[in-house]
Design goal:
The complex is a heterotrimer. By secondary structure, chain A is mainly α. Chain A has one domain (4-47). Chain A is 52% helix and 5% strand. By secondary structure, chain B is of the alpha/beta class. Chain B has helices at 10-14, 24-33, 38-56, 64-79, 123-130, 173-181, 197-203, 237-247, 293-308, 321-346, 356-360, 367-387, 413-416, 422-426, 456-469, 480-486; strands at 59-62, 91-95, 134-139, 186-190, 206-209, 230-234, 277-281, 312-316, 393-397, 431-438, 444-450. In chain B, a hairpin with a 5-residue loop joins strand 10 (431-438) and strand 11. The longest helix of chain B has 26 residues, at 321-346. Chain C is mostly helical. Chain C has a domain at 1-45. Classes of the chains: A mainly alpha, B alpha/beta, C mainly alpha. The B-C interface holds B 226, 255, 320, 323, 326-327, 329-330, 341, 344-345, 348, 353, 356-357, 360-361, 363-365, 369, 371-379, 381, 412, 415-416 and C 10, 13-14, 16-21, 25, 28-29, 31-33, 35-37, 39-40, 42-45, 47-48, 51-55, 61. Strand 1 (54-56) of chain A pairs antiparallel with strand 1 of chain C, so a sheet runs across the interface.
Chain lengths: 60, 487, 65
């Protein structure tokens, strides 16, 4: 199973971001929290068939 | 450009029992002059749809009994002098991601909750039902309107009726096949990146992607929330107009639905395109090295015919056309992935083997990518709007090639091949695909006409004008040879 | 300077997405990833620096008149 450190390394690589060593711990905490938040959002059964709040209009 | 008249034409078949190749307009006239009944027409179509389904895979579910009941009700209404309009008694195909009472919806997938949409009509289906239409059945779709067929999942595999070794395109494959092969006179498809226009293109008939919000899309399994649309598919632009004037209009159940008046589209198709200004965006759309010369030449020949009727055409350019195709794919991928994310985690193997990799791509984009694609979308929509200050319509090929051999296809192609349809989902504009001829080997060719927001009347008028002087949209594949295969 | 190859990136992204795929499926993702990534990167045009997204939020739709 991949650790959050390994997943974070991939995300940083994708983003082209190379934070200094002293930022790594804080970024890892933020990443881990972000993953948990994402899981939480996708676990809300009531939102399963909802439309997004952002709407596109062809006319503007 | 010559037309191979050895192919069957609607006129030739009219003398036989082949009412299934009639246009909706001609069938409507025949129903009213008593030369056919809806029951006879529907019975013929249901019988042929059933017989040919093993060979063509047009339908997931054929609702024969219910269709005949609808047809009988239409005939009774005619006899009583009740006329609900040109769609009364007309057999139609409904794409199997759209909710329809009396038949379940599968989205061609083992993953869709069987209870989804049960016992309800999507607003667009309810409108067609109220207009007296007959529903032949739920037509085959690419899984969740995105994948390619996986025969191991137990759903019918769709085949192009012009050449069963070739793709009928997707995702509205079933409706595309049904209209071409006379297994319905028209029907519904959905279009998120080309899924109405692609099947119309390779099956040799007309398919309209409407302005985003023109037709309510509630009661449809979503693919991409900000790109999806429901569109009519039929032989002719005139038939699409007849369908659209019933389908279109605001419905509060769809937060994307536009509250814009619905004209009587069919009454606006008068063949007069004198002074119409056509723009031809050459870079990417006409000069790509993967665009086949036969495709390009057929489109330009069609444009010349329109010019001969009084239109003018001018070459022009739209910037970032290749990037626009990618922006559409990115937005589609991200929005689709959000909808399927939990099921992909828990039910990966239940998805088709050619659907799940395409859905999973959404996991490889970042949230910022989606936001940025949306900003690109703003810029590109503004660029296209600037072009429309000088032109009434733009014309492009519908696809870079005619129908591909199925054995040569793979999902990764979409990343590399040019595509001419997603641009108009990105900008939310109406775009119709109509036949523009045939290849030397007898495969349908197609051109695409794009208009300003809510200018469906204009794009259909141009399409109709060309169809008044050509008969490609009336030709149909020689399906008689398939009965032996199906037996 | 990139330090991870496509294989490592796709492996990590699949893990983050909690997806377990076949070796053949993963190989296809690895093959396609560089083009997907470069196509997405190409949308970060300088001229879009001050452009708003095309999808907008309207809070009033949740409050019927």
């Amino acid at each position: 199973m991949h650790s959050n450190e390994e997943k974070l390394a991939v995300v940083l690589e994708m983003s082209g971001i190379t934070p200094p060593a002293e930022d790594q711990e804080a970024i890892l905490r933020a990443f881990s929290t972000g993953r948990e938040l994402s899981k939480l959002i996708f676990s809300v059964a009531q939102a399963r068939y909802e439309e997004p709040a952002l709407i596109f209009s062809a006319r503007v | 450009m010559s037309t191979d008249l050895s192919m069957n034409s609607s006129a030739a078949d009219a003398a036989s029992h082949s009412h299934k190749f009639l246009t909706i307009a001609d069938a409507a006239a025949a129903l009213r002059d008593g030369s056919i009944t809806s029951v006879a027409l529907t019975a013929d179509i249901v019988e042929k749809a059933t017989a040919l389904n093993p060979a063509l895979g047009a339908y997931v579910t054929i609702t024969g009994d219910a269709a005949l009941a609808q047809a009988a009700a239409a005939d009774v209404a005619f006899a009583a002098g009740n006329d609900f309009g040109p769609l009364q008694g007309i057999p139609l195909a409904i794409k199997d991601i759209i909710a329809m009472k009396g038949a379940g919806t599968t989205a061609n997938s083992r993953v869709l909750d069987p209870a989804w949409g049960a016992g309800t009509d999507a607003p667009v289906v309810a409108r067609l039902r109220a207009a007296g239409s007959v529903f032949v059945g739920k037509s085959t779709t690419s899984e969740f309107a995105l994948g390619m067929p996986d025969a191991s999942k137990g759903f019918p595999v769709p085949h192009n009726p012009w050449d069963v070794e070739r793709t009928p395109a997707g995702s509205s494959s079933g409706t595309g096949i049904a209209v071409a092969a006379g297994l319905a006179l028209g029907g519904l498809g959905t279009d998120t990146g080309g899924s109405v226009r692609g099947p119309a293109c390779v099956n040799g008939h007309t398919g309209l992607k409407v302005t985003f919000g023109r037709v309510p899309k509630s009661g449809v399994v979503p693919l991409a929330f900000s790109l999806d649309s429901i569109g009519p598919m039929a032989r002719s632009a005139y038939d699409c107009a007849l369908l659209l004037e019933v389908m279109a209009g605001y419905d509060a159940s769809d937060p994307n639905a536009a509250d814009v008046e619905v004209p009587k589209y069919s009454e606006l198709l008068n063949g007069d395109i004198d002074g119409l200004k056509i723009g031809l965006p050459i870079p990417y759309f006409f000069d790509h090295d993967q665009l086949e010369p036969e495709v390009r030449d057929a489109v330009l020949s069609g444009v010349q015919q329109l010019v001969g009727m009084g239109a003018t055409s001018k070459e022009m350019a739209l910037p970032y056309a290749a990037e626009a195709k990618d922006a559409n794919m990115l937005i589609l991928g991200a929005e689709a992935y959000a909808y399927h994310r939990n099921n992909l985690v828990n039910r990966w193997e239940d998805y088709g083997n050619l659907t799940r990799p395409t859905l999973a791509r959404g996991a490889f984009y970042t949230a910022a990518d989606y936001a940025q694609a949306s900003r690109f979308r703003s810029m590109w929509s503004a660029e296209v709007a600037k072009a429309f200050e000088h032109y009434d319509v733009l014309i492009t090929p519908s696809a870079p090639s005619p129908a591909q051999l199925v054995k040569d296809m793979d999902p990764s192609q979409r990343l590399v091949q040019p595509s001419y349809t997603g641009h108009w989902n990105l900008t939310g504009l109406p775009a119709v695909a109509i036949p523009s001829g045939f290849t030397a080997s007898g495969l349908p060719l197609s051109m695409q006409i794009i208009g300003k927001p809510f200018a469906e009347a204009t794009v259909l008028k141009v399409a109709d004008a060309l169809q008044r002087v050509t008969n490609w949209h009336l030709l149909h594949p020689p399906v008689e040879t398939l009965y032996a295969t199906a037996a | 300077m990139p330090t991870l190859d496509s294989e490592a990136i796709v492996t990590g992204l699949l893990a983050a997405a909690q997806l377990t795929v076949s070796p053949q499926e993963k190989a296809t993702f690895v093959k396609d990833y560089p083009l997907m990534r470069s196509n997405a990167d190409a949308l970060y045009l300088a001229e879009l620096e001050f452009v708003e997204p095309a999808v907008t939020f309207d809070p009033t739709v949740y409050y019927p008149a």
